[in-house]
Amino acid sequence: MRIVPRILLCCSLLLLFALASNDDAYACSCISVPIEEQYERSHIVFLGTVIEKDGQGGNIFEIERVWKGSVLGNTLYVYGGSFGMCGIEFEMGQKYLIHTWHAEGMERTGICSGNLLASEAAEDIQKLNEWRASEKQKSLAAATLLIISITAILGLSYWTMIRR
What we know:
Residues 1-20 form the signal peptide. With 164 residues, the protein is an alpha+beta fold. The protein contains 3 helices and 6 strands, in the order ααββββββα.
């Protein structure tokens, strides 16, 4: 019978020490992820200015430039979540580099998505521009190869037809 009070005392002391601990807890902390990885994870990557907020985590951006994905028109609704739940708060009239993912029928973003104020994103924007230029060169090379191949096939077909 004497063991029960001792167990209760030990459990109470452990609980007291756990509650008295003054370490801060951060539920929404992000590790630093390189722009290359953020780009690969993202559904849409764009530069845009906040032109409207719905008060419930939604933001409408006027799109200036898109590096990944496609946007119909020149505006995009992006849900940033609620700030207390790892969401992100955007300021009206500010320009941002935004990385989104697509879920539940809409574009979403959060504090760990790699979003930056445009004024702080010069290095990332430069890398995105370089990748975009590289992709265009690859596309141009592929298109050129396709045109040459089609021309060669048509030429060979024509030559074969004439010889008969």
